[in-house]
Fold each of these.
Amino acid sequence: MSSYADDLALAHLLADTADSISMARFRALDLRVESKPDLTPVSDADTAVEQAIRATLARARPRDGVIGEEFGNSTAPAGQGNRHWVIDPIDGTKNFIRGVPVWGTLIALMEGEQPVAGLVSAPALGRRWWGARGLGAYAGKHQRAATKLTVSAVRKIGDASFCYSSLTGWEDAGRLQPMLGIMRDAWRSRAFGDFYGYMLLAEGALEVMVEPELSLWDVAALIPIITEAGGKFTDLAGHRAPGDGSAIATNGHLHEEILERLSGGKNWSILAG
């Protein structure tokens, strides 16, 4: 357990560095933005943050590997081990380049295929969230001013706040109708994309967050925070951990219903009628 506490402390130091770099470039008139091969944008802040984090990890954790969105997979300087860090230097780059303050740096530690510690830092919002296996999940401006996180106790979809990233991805995945059915049945539905919906779930402000397509660096840091707050995280096939690139995160009470509806289980529209 103590090793995760040490790793979380390091993650906070990494996030402090990331925040100073990203905030200096946020809304900068000379911000440089390019398109990656997949046509998604990348700014000079994305690359600078990841380079800085990698440099610190190479010194502080020479036996740990690194996987980052911008520079791929790097073997540990001291040789390949079971631990690796997963970095999304700026989650929400499209928000970042348009001046929308909902973006953040995601830092995770994985042992094998399991995320065991995670931190999300959103400096433009003045917020940070973190958690590690067996240590709980917390939010605040820093470790010394933290509030313990607990998911909500809502047990009915009709009382739940339902969150998603967009509808077009679910349409492309052939699951738009189940999505619309859940949105009609839920008490409230809103699209808080990227990390933010997941952190609102961990805080107990909403009950469900779903996405049809994700990369490892998009979710690795989120999983320990959500699960340590008492929530549940699987992919659309019901597998725990990062899974197949999709995500269903809930407060736990609603997980089986959401999973079944989005994976093509019962005809809920008939049952509801």
Amino acid sequence: MNHHTLKQRHRTLREGYPANLNLRVHRALSWLKRAEMAAAEGDDDGRFIFLWIAFNAAYASEIDERCRLSEQATFMGFLERLCALDTGKRIDNLVWQEFAGGIRVLLDTPFVFQSFWDFQAGKLGEDEWLARFAKGKKIAQQALAGGRTPALLGVVFNRLYTLRNQLIHGGATWNSKINRKQLRDCGQLLSKLVPVILDLMLDYPEVDWGPACYPVLDAA
């Protein structure tokens, strides 16, 4: 499943679909297309960034400031909803079959764990960051043993979010040699997961996906 197939599907379905859903999917597909171009160019950094923007376009909503959730809590709620709707177990199949080995490697990598960097900056002691690292791996191992996809995705996306921050906030060099493996592994996971997410959203137009951020306004 790629941009082309999803774009064709959206064109056949969008008539009568809620405007907010159409806007989310349209925006996400534009960034998915750019991510595929980056992959063809061998740009691992660009592919990951564009895939994250596509994911962001799919889930993000305007939230009342008085009850604003953290970004991670927001996208975790979105993923939990998708897993509940995913009767065909497409997300499960990706997590448990195609990417189980890669996820285990990711969970053993401290460079995509925020507490490791907090320790490097002197914000945490060594014992504390190691304890948090072990706790995250334990949660993931329990999720793996119990087949609990949302719980496992929670730990995985915590790591992806750290990688996202490194890139978006200028904490990494473009095309650096020191972070290639995690970028390629994380980019590969998102390249398969984002299309499934968009396909599931198209399956459920009756679900209230919430208002899209920065709606399109008339020029007048």
Amino acid sequence: MDTSRSSVNMALISAIVAVATIGGLLFGYDSGAVNGTQGGLVEAFDLSPAKLGFTVGSLLIGCAVGAFFAGRLADVIGRKRVMIVAALLFVIGALIQGTTGDHTFFVLARFSGGMAVGAASVLSPLYISEVAPAHIRGRLTTVQQVMIISGLTAAFVVNYFVARAAGDSLGIIAGVKAWRWMYLAQAVPAAVFLVSLFFIPESPRFLVAKGRIAEAKGVLTRLFGEETATRKIGEIEASFSSEHRPRLSDVTAPGTGFRPIVWAGLLLATFQQFVGINIIFYYGETLWKLAGVSESVALERNIISGVVSIAAVFVTIMVIDKIGRKPLLMIGSVGMAVTLGAMTWAFSGAGQDAAGNLQLAETPGYVALVSANLYVIFFNVSWGPVMWVMLGEMFPNQIRGSALAVAGLAQWTANYAVVQSFPWMAENLGLASTYAFYTASAVISFFLVKRFINETKGKELEEMEGWDAPSASNAA
């Protein structure tokens, strides 16, 4: 059943999306805030390189834990309440990281912040998909990716100006080290998120799952009008099992471990990381330097790259509900395979100077630079936002929370594995072989999407199925 477009309360839906996507902003901000603080961490806690790596990486471990438990708790206590818990973790984590002198407390706070990031990564698209009209659900959920990149860019900007005001990250502002202000600044948007959450309704799908029919109808009436709300209540009720409430075992299937639709979600979640997007970001400054610009200009151009990434996601917003999710994923896979292949070629001729720094000849240097930026654009037009859109909408109501728990855990585990394996791969296999792996992952992702992913454009959430196998019309 298509929701009547004329009865949709876009003012309320826009407000809900604006609040929910603050979680995406914090997702990006918390992930990017550590840039520029590592010198301060070493000084404050006397960290070895290994301990510094663990301290920084503890966020990603928390992300995996947070994504899993948030997906499960969303089916138990509700989407809104879990987002409130995540907002509290954001605030507490920021304040402790910015003030504590104890390394153990700092790591625990960073882990807690990671749990909040993981929770926000799965709950924002989940919540938006459950309140948005089907005909614009894709573009509204894609706003999440805009906010993630905006958060990353904001963290870079704040860190840049804080360090500039203090002289460097070890300087002092108002009696506090500059690098600590970089963490404390996170508390401001986190507090805004926390307060705003009290003014939005609970997901009507969760309310129906809990048997709170009158409340669900009230929310749906505010969103779509009374006539549509009455019809949708029955459709939503029919999409849940009459035998039991949603539970984690709903995602499993005899013999294969998970239901086919869950395997499809795991495919999307892991290959979004296997294409190496975070590694590309780590080499952004280096690539600008190889093109002949100074360090300060390289840092400024990293900010520009963030702005370009945001612009790329706006392209997705304009087209995702017109051409669909699956075509965008396939286009992105092709574009990433080509650009990563070009980077593999460029790095195949890389050398090192006396200090061990990466060196490329002029032509390969420019090829690597241009290819890296084109890669980021292809990623942010496709797999960056579309993966989160798909995870938020592709699962049936009965298993959505649990399936997102599993997929979110897989996504952040893959993220951690790629980030942690990169130094070893680069040192022992070389950059060319390392980027060849990311290239191969992009190529494989094209065929996996072609074979196993079904289109969800324009479908109501109650039409989502378990997918025993891709249908003939969607497999092609």
Amino acid sequence: MARKVLFIGLVWPEPTSSAAGTRIVQLVELFLANGDEVHFASAASKSEFSFNLPALGVKEHTIVLNHSSFDTWIAELNPNVVVFDRFMIEEQYGWRVRQYCPNCLSILDTEDLHFLRYARQQASKRNGEINLFNDVTKREIASIMRCDLSLIISLKEMEVLKSFNISEHLLYYLPFLEENINSAEHYMSFEERKDFVFIGNYLHEPNWQTLQYLKNTIWPLLSREIPQASLHIYGAYMSEKVTQMHNEKQKFIVHGRAENARHTIAKHRILLAPLKFGAGAKGKFIDAMQTGTPIATSSVGAEGMMMDLSWPGVTTDDIDTLLAQVVELYHDREKWLGAQQSGFEILHQMYARNHFEKAFMEQLEQLETELSAHRKKNFLGEIFHHHTLQSTKYLSLWIAEKNKSR
């Protein structure tokens, strides 16, 4: 049976700018393929890179943060399902959705676990231990508890959440959803490719930190080993501090935004991405696997993305090991082809869309028919709705009144 599904976005999705944009569009397409009526609302401003959702048949809505107009609008729309794009959106709109559409199924798309990334970022700054018991953790887990279902993109993140004793019936593993790839016949061969590439959205702190690590540490060492090669830097939202890194003499080439990430990656022999910290599944790695491009990364880069399968390239936290294995991979055609096939196998085993879409829709149908019982099982979440959101609710109402006085 067709549903009315509402996505509330932190921003309007930009698949060409970030993996988060790709993820949300994939979810939209999943509901559309099911025959559902899909709406997308956001209080953010659009950019020239915002995805053309109406072209898919999605109805767009501009909403206002901390304003009662949302209450009237959501009551009239009366969706069957609301998908919150990240926990901050659930904090802002969740209480309004529950108040005016109490029987609506609430889904949180975590994108990645923000508290895990934040904890690792803080540990990296201090060069100390990772502290998962931070304020972001409390906020994000509270949001997960308030929702009927939370979508988790990484197997590692499923483990982390279970370590907090969050019930499995509140969590659903739904990774990036990809079409199967079985060969590299459509892509450039080993001989046709050259050089290294790194790509990312530079508003995203892990990408900015990795870029500095490449510029200051990894590339000066690697370029001595492969002096004929260049490192090409692409990505969205490059600030001046990024573009100033461009140095042709050092063969560190900063290009700017890539029109098509996959076409860009496919020209190069290796994706070089030794991430210092982060969380979730990495969209750039999916893009690399889809184009048959081996990946050199760290343990945190590869975590949750390979199960017991072979990584398509190099994964290590030791600089000397990274350099030695990357040099070998760059020159050894057979190893390179083996890494390419490993990427195709990971896509087939872990990210093939047809492995997930039917089961996900069946899960939603079951939740819709058993929503009352499901919420009773999650009584702690109901307590959070009653108490925690009262503070969010009245802060929002206070801001609304303050805005009126202006």
